[in-house]
Amino acid sequence: MAYVPLQHLIFWLIAIGLGRTAQGAASCPNGWIENPQSGTCIKLYDDKKSWQDARAVCQADGGDLVKILDASKNQFIWGKVSADRGEPYWIGLHDSKREGIFRWLDESNKVPYLNWGRGQPNNIDAQNHTNGQDCVEIGHSVITATKWNDMDCDNAAKFICERSITASCPPGWIESPQSGTCIKLYDDMKSWQDARAVCQADGGDLVKIVDDSMNQFIWEKVSADSGKTYWIGLHDRNREGKFEWLDETDVAQYTNWDSGQPNNLLGSSKQSNGQDCVEIGNSLSTPSKWNDMECDTPSKFICEKSPGGSSAKASCPPGWIESPQSGTCIKLYDDMKSWQDARAVCQADGGDLVKIVDDNMNQFIWEKVSADSGKTYWIGLHDRNREGKFEWLDETDVAQYTNWDSGQPNNLLGSSGQSNGQDCVEIGNSLSTPSKWNDMECDTPSKFICEKSPGGSSAKASCPPGWIESPQSGTCIKLYDDMKSWQDARAVCQADGGDLVKIVDDSMNQFIWEKVSADSGKTYWIGLHDRNREGKFEWLDETDVAQYTNWDSGQPNNLLGPAWQTNGQDCVEIGNSLSTPSKWNDMECDTPSKFICEKSPGGSPAKANCPNGWIESPGSGTCIKMSDDKKSWADARAACQADGGDLVKILDDSMNQ
After folding, report:
1. Whole-number Å distance between alpha carbons of 251 and 255
2. Which of 131, 356, 555, 564 is the most exposed place for a label (fewest CB within 10 A)?
């Protein structure tokens, strides 16, 4: 390439969001350091914990294990741990879901940067853990200290947490250095319930006190108020004697009871549940300690919220009750419906059939249905996708928690028309052990239980007419009989608010195959291709090589089509014309074929088209524009920013090419 003077360089514009914008008084809490590369806060912990326990600490502190997306951030992290010779630190990368497929904790499919040490990851089963080494560390235990190593998740190590930069507290609120949240004391005398309503209206909730240091901080604020107490967010209104915070379902880990408390003394005769709410203040025998009190008692109160806005959950709508275990809203329906029709009612009401996450939630649900003698209720568990593999409606993995009745699930066949047997699950009084579960034919009429988030719908929006839901991906699928090239098929999908289908695993491939299998001799375009890099097959929403493929024998073989198709077979099809019909084949992209589109239930997952004058970069999924104006680097950048982007960032060799 000929030499080009700097002042004559052509610059490029790319339509990506700028980095962190001005955040006013946003800053990291005490003990955290700002990472300028990511605009987040980092904290190193010297306590040695398993990867899971380390993550729990990070989450309790408002963040998660650190995510390292590029070399500059890796260098920043390394600069903080390098003095700690011989000690590794957990980071947020893992392959605990699919062996060898490493992902960050936010479940992003994109892992643009990896920094393995020599010979890593090697998945050595160092401690007889059958799953091997599924979690990742950085530090001096690796041969090259700045590099990464996979390690057994149960291994005790130091760890690094990351959280977003918090904005400053609004006027009238004070920051709690222990929790990084904003605190406000209210002098109005209110019941616990009314106090909570005030906090929620102000964008927060009653305060959660996490440790002795935070309790001391709170006490210093209320100690001058002689003889007064303040409501906090602890209560046992869901389970007598099991005190929990408003954002939790487990028993509180930290408490600070006064001598002889909690004693659950009954209030007036109408308060038959006794003292279910908790206060701190000067009227106690030890003023900084806590006391349980009748929730209707008027008292001052303390609210808490995140600096950036609300930390409170929205309340459940009328007719719904809050599940303290899941933080969701529950509603029982007396209408007798099939499992499918029951689910449709739940979705129309902004939710879905209930997901029961643990014994506590099962007990909560059971208490609601136990009075309904001889009746059962549909829940959201089923094995309609894979016989014997019971999963919840929002998942594709086998359910972690189940509560089967004795001898269940037994998959007894229903009527002759129900050849798949008992694929849906119920809870209720007609079972040998009433609080347990039973599998039942999905067409059986039964009562049912819906669940949704307090703020609105927790359910995926339903698919529009003509589309069918893929339970594996939670997306909507549509088969088109029109014969089109791969490019034209994609254009139809995008015009319909989606894109060519992405098949994520064997179960989804089987689901797709069942839809096309009756179409003898026909194939359907899917969203896989190697148009960007020969032999590197990727999905339309990714730039990395596809993790899951399902090639037919001898495929992909890249056979050339007509002479003008010099790149050969760059697009992928599934269908009946292959030697193994449910497998895949690469084919010339101009070949007319049927096709399968996919979109999210609520709208389009497809990327918007680039504006006029811009071209799409398949390597980054962004829009590129070349300008002939000659400018300095600073003026060129200003022009890019004025156009809604920035100077181009080149991510890899294929994008550079």
Report:
1. 10
2. 564
